[in-house]
Amino acid sequence: MFSQYIDSPLGPVHILATASGITAISFVPTRQAAEQPSALTTLAAQQLSAYFAGTLSHFSLPLTASGTVFQQQVWRQLCAIPFGQTCSYADIARGISNVKAVRAVGAANGRNPIAIVVPCHRVIGANGTLTGYAGGLDKKAWLLKHEQRQKALFG
């Protein structure tokens, strides 16, 4: 397992990877362990830094997060949400052709281990309100505003 941290406007971000792909990206309160970077964690760190700098709107990283078949399906659908846009859990359920799975989509969204790159922060309540985010609603609000500003600047 490879590990690397970056500093972001929202605090430290921890990147984990195997030799074949990124397995987790998460906000952490402090750098908790020694780093063991790899080419993949370095690439993720570069892309995340560019995202936070406002110069990257699409990630191109191999992702290998562990999850159920259903979770993987939801996470792939999350990656289809365009930069700077939001959708509801029901939209994701429709996107995976399982309209009755709104609650299960919410649960899978909450278990997404790859923050930012798999943009679960772009999912909001059907009424337009911000709903749960593992990193905290303050981070979710910041990420959405950051993307909307960048989208307005670069369209």
From TrEMBL:
A family per Pfam: DNA_binding_1
GO cellular component, one term: cytoplasm
Signal peptide: none
Methylguanine DNA methyltransferase ribonuclease-like domain: residues covered: 2-64
GO biological process: DNA alkylation repair; methylation
Subcellular compartments: Cytoplasm
Main localisation: cytoplasm
GO molecular function: methylated-DNA-[protein]-cysteine S-methyltransferase activity
Active site per database record: C120 (nucleophile)
EC number(s) from the headed UniProt entry: 2.1.1.63
Reaction equation(s) it catalyzes: a 4-O-methyl-thymidine in DNA + L-cysteinyl-[protein] = a thymidine in DNA + S-methyl-L-cysteinyl-[protein]; a 6-O-methyl-2'-deoxyguanosine in DNA + L-cysteinyl-[protein] = S-methyl-L-cysteinyl-[protein] + a 2'-deoxyguanosine in DNA
CDD domains listed in its UniProt record: ATase
Keyword Cell membrane: no
Keyword annotations: Cytoplasm, DNA damage, DNA repair, Methyltransferase, Transferase
Domain (Methylated-DNA-[protein]-cysteine S-methyltransferase DNA binding) ranges: 70-148
UniProt xrefs under InterPro entries: MethylDNA_cys_MeTrfase_AS, MethylDNA_cys_MeTrfase_DNA-bd, MethylDNA_cys_MeTrfase_DNAb, MethylG_MeTrfase_N, MGMT, MGMT_N_sf, WH-like_DNA-bd_sf
Enzyme class: transferase
Domain of life: Bacteria
Note: This enzyme catalyzes only one turnover and therefore is not strictly catalytic. According to one definition, an enzyme is a biocatalyst that acts repeatedly and over many reaction cycles.
Family per record: Belongs to the MGMT family.
Job description of the protein: Involved in the cellular defense against the biological effects of O6-methylguanine (O6-MeG) and O4-methylthymine (O4-MeT) in DNA. Repairs the methylated nucleobase in DNA by stoichiometrically transferring the methyl group to a cysteine residue in the enzyme. This is a suicide reaction: the enzyme is irreversibly inactivated.
Protein name (Swiss-Prot/TrEMBL): Methylated-DNA--protein-cysteine methyltransferase
Taxonomic classification: Bacteria, Pseudomonadati, Pseudomonadota, Gammaproteobacteria, Chromatiales
